[in-house]
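re: ur question from earlier - yeah i can do the single chain one, its not a big deal. heres the input i used so u can compare w yours
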Amino acid sequence: MACGLAFLSPRLTARAYTDFYRRVYRPLVSAYHGRLIDRVTVQADQAVYAKELLRFLAPRVKGRAPRRLIDIGGSTGVVAAAVAEALGCRGLVLDPSPAELAEARARGLETREGLLEEFEATEEGAYDLALLCQTVDHLLDIAGALKKIRGLLGGNGLLYVDFVDFRTIFSRHGRIEEAVKVDHPYYLTHETMEAYLSIAGFEALATVVLPDRHHMGYLCRKSPPRDDFRIPADQGLSLLREIRSVQAKQRS
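and the output i got, formated as tokens:
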């Protein structure tokens, strides 16, 4: 906890998570929110998200004329299709759900079934833009995944990634339990996200707080990996003190 990274222990294996996303994830999310969220109904929320993402992304990416994008954890392809159309490029959606990929194919997108950890591109540097939207918290190996994404991008390639700010969630709800979910193996803060990006070889060009006020987004370009990057120990200790304070209020 010295660096401020929170994580599930124990957590599901890669095989178990693959099965989880195919059979359990959407019913579980539906039960949590008290309404049906499936491959059809989720598209309305995804369309709203796509509109907000493009408001941030389009003016910062359009001049770079990306040819191909990959949307990792891209679900039904609503976001990938909107971004591809706005930027005039071709899109591929990578996702573990066959049902949701069928929706993406119906939009004319290329699709690949599976997790990022299992994905192999046909060539290095095949993409100009990678989207990791509301997905990085779901990854089993964030450091390895970001390094892999770096290899998927060409020299001028860009990465957009957003994450749930762990500090914001537990502070808002006043309960650690409200911030922890089985589908999120890791729980990130601005400091830990910045560390992951720097070590993997990314530099943030711009950041945004999304309208839900608990997702933070980064648009990044490739940079030399920072193997020497370290989070000051007091950052992790500060987060730990905040967590203990919330837990103490919960018990009182």
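The two ends are 25 Å apart (CA to CA). not sure if urs matches, ping me
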